[in-house]
Structures are given as C-alpha cells and as structure tokens.
Amino acid sequence: MKRIVLCAIIAITPLAGLAQTATPPNLIGTWVGVSHSAVISGGNHHPGGTQDSVRFRQIEFKLVIDKQEGRNFSGKTISPDYTEPFVGALRADLKRGVMADTDGTDEFTLVGNNRMELCYVQPRTNGASIVAACLEYERK
Predict the structure, then answer these.
(1) Per the confidence metrics, is the pTM higher than 0.90?
(2) Whether 64 contacts 88, CB under 8 Å
(3) Reduced to 3 states, what is the DSSP secondary structure of residue 10?
(4) Rounded to 5 degrees, what angle do the CA atoms 22, 136, 61 make?
C-alpha cells in the first residue's frame, strides 16, 4: 500500500507544478531613486562635461511604468534634464528583468513589493557619453 501511495505522489507531483502558473507582479506606478553614476562626457540625463572628462553624479530619477501586459512593461525615465521612453521584461523567476531605452540597457532585481535595485549601462556609440549607474528605486 505504501508503494502505491508513493507512486501516486510521484506521478501527480509534476502535474501539480504545471497547474500553478505564477502571476507577474504589478509594476505599474512611479518609482523614485537617486543614481550613483559614473559618466564620461555628457549625455541626455547628464549634460555638461567635456569629451573625455569623468564625472561622478548623484541625481534623482523617476521611473514611471504606465503599461504592463504579463511579464512585459513600458514607461519613461525622468531626470531633472531629460525624459526618455523604455520597454522592459521580467525573467521567468519574476524577480529579475531587463529594460532598454534609446541608448542603453538596465538589469534590475525586485527586492520587495515596492523596492527595485537597478543598474544601467550606456556604451559609447557615435561619440555619445559612457554611463554606468546603479539605483535603488522605491515605489511611491
């Protein structure tokens, strides 16, 4: 009898996993954080600077996510000097993801319902600036 129960549990367990489909978290809202940025030259969010000058900046950013469908979302990044559209996607674990804007990419991790750690990279293309930045966003 124990074998029959054990075999039944083993047979049913994979099916139970298929029946459970995790729902992506709702990301819609306004997220606010302060960047820790290293910048070479200028840029949309980091104006000023000379061609090869290195600057370290801390400025407030807002990440406004206004659309979401399943694991995909979109919105805009707002700094004191510039507003830029982005698109994004959550990985299968529903805690990590990627975003892309007009000139760079982000990787992020959700570290709570209303907290996100995000790092951004913008390589130099066509004489543009180079940016590496990390932020901790909080949804307001």
Answers:
(1) no
(2) no
(3) helix
(4) 110
What does the H/E/C string look like for 94-134? CCEEEEECCCCEEEEEEEECCEEEEEEEECCCCCCCEEEEE
Q: Is 72 exposed, middle or buried (0-12, 13-18, 19+ CB in 10 A)?
A: middle
Q: Which residue has the tokens 């907290």?
A: 115
Torsional sign, CA 79, 83, 84, 89: positive
Contacts of 63-71 with CB under 8 Å at 24 or more apart are 63/30, 63/31, 63/32, 63/33, 63/116, 63/118, 63/137, 64/29, 64/30, 64/31, 65/27, 65/28, 65/29, 65/31, 66/28, 67/28, 68/24, 68/26, 68/27, 68/28, 70/24, 71/24, 71/97
Q: State the 10-residue block means of pLDDT for the chain, 140 residues long.
A: 53 49 95 95 73 89 98 97 96 98 94 96 80 96
